[in-house]
Amino acid sequence: MAKGFNKAPGMGGGGMMQQLQRMQQQLAEAQAKLAEETVTATAGGGAIKVVMTGDQKCREVMIDPELLKDADAEMLQDLVLSAVNMALDRSRELASQRLGPLAGGLPF
Question: What's the pLDDT score for residue 7?
Answer without folding.
Answer: 52
